[in-house]
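Marked as duplicate of an earlier ticket. Keeping the data here for the record.
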Amino acid sequence: MIDATKGFTIVRVLSATPERIWQAWTSADEVSQWWHPPGSSTPRETVEMNAEAGGKYVYEMVNDGTGDSVVTGGFFMVVEPFEKLSLTWGVPGAHPEDTPLVTVNLEEADGGTQLTFDLRGVEGSEGDRFLYDGWAGVLDSLQAHVQQG
């Protein structure tokens, strides 16, 4: 079982509607374009998305410089269109109770949508050059992606 007292939250206001951001999080075609930090890529052929409660997802991040890759996946736990996604995040197929939990909340805000990203079960902090900074980079990629249209 994960330790839910460990974790971190990142809040961003994105210049896009909740519907647009939702599409980016739940479409395999779109996930392949942004779900990676700078310096990495997510090949489309590695992405599987079944964005419904209990549905599985998997993707591979490839370091563009070294070619090293990491396969990650999990299960969608809560799916409330245009408002909330909760998904396990870790080794594909791992038991949900033993896997860190990502929750994404979307709320309309001045200038777009407030996205609140919360990761529970692992520690991270700004400047760690690992989990927090990695997810902050992923959210930067998301912001650039949804602004492109």
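See parent ticket for discussion. The chain has a mean pLDDT of 96.
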